[in-house]
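Board notes, transcribed. Complex of a protein with adenosine-5'-triphosphate.
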Amino acid sequence: MAERASFLVEARGVSVALGGTLALDRASLRLEPGPRTVVLGANGAGKSVLLRTLHGLIAPTAGVVAWGDVDGRPARQAMVFQRPVMLRRSALANIGYALAVNGVAEPQRSRRAAAALARVGLTALAGRPARVLSGGEQQRLALARAWSLEPEVLFLDEPTASLDPGATAEVERVIASFAAEGTRIVMTTHNLGQARRLADEIVFIHAGRVTERTAADRFFVQPGSTEASLFLQGEIPW
Ligand SMILES: Nc1ncnc2c1ncn2[C@@H]1O[C@H](COP(=O)(O)OP(=O)(O)OP(=O)(O)O)[C@@H](O)[C@H]1O
Ligand SMILES: [Mg+2]
């Protein structure tokens, strides 16, 4: 009998070997609709590989990634990478292109592209070549491009790395508003202040394994493992 899934996407005992490295080592994580998840862990722990694998960009070497359903179809997913690639065309056309690739025809395409730009406050820059936008503007454009696809799950890999505090705050506002509308946010960050601001729950990865999943308020006070505790001590300067 077909299972009516109550989850959006799930990794079950997933291992990923890349160039001789076991980037993920029997990692399991089930994402239900709901909370905002921030994935934390040291450099090289496997955060990016986990997100890419959940997004279907990397095939597991062992284990299974399963996609749940929403209204009888697979949950729509989108991903924003740490360094988003913009095409050599306008901000608006970058979104239009993504919609076209995903089968959205005119006139919906133009309408949705314009709405997405407005959503992140970039309407005034619609005609500007995407590649000359500032880092913060490009990151917001990348968020708009992902949001235009109406994802139920949005993966964000270090969405504010290398942004200044003002641009970071703007991107955080956009992320929080997507979440408030019901988009399931799964993100990584090295900014612990950001993790506190945006996370409902923390998933901690150590050496390719998901070692902990804890409510955010609790994680920062009482991490569940020595690794997580050391990680927090190393990152917090007081
Ligand atoms: N394409 C690849 N080929 C070989 N090894 C890779 C590849 N991609 C990732 N790895 C390795 O897999 C491990 C996990 O990498 P990953 O990028 O997921 O780490 P991360 O937790 O995102 O780290 P960071 O915080 O630095 O972004 C690392 O040891 C990395 O070197
Ligand atoms: Mg990474």
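The first helix runs from residue 47 to 54. The longest strand covers residues 21-31.
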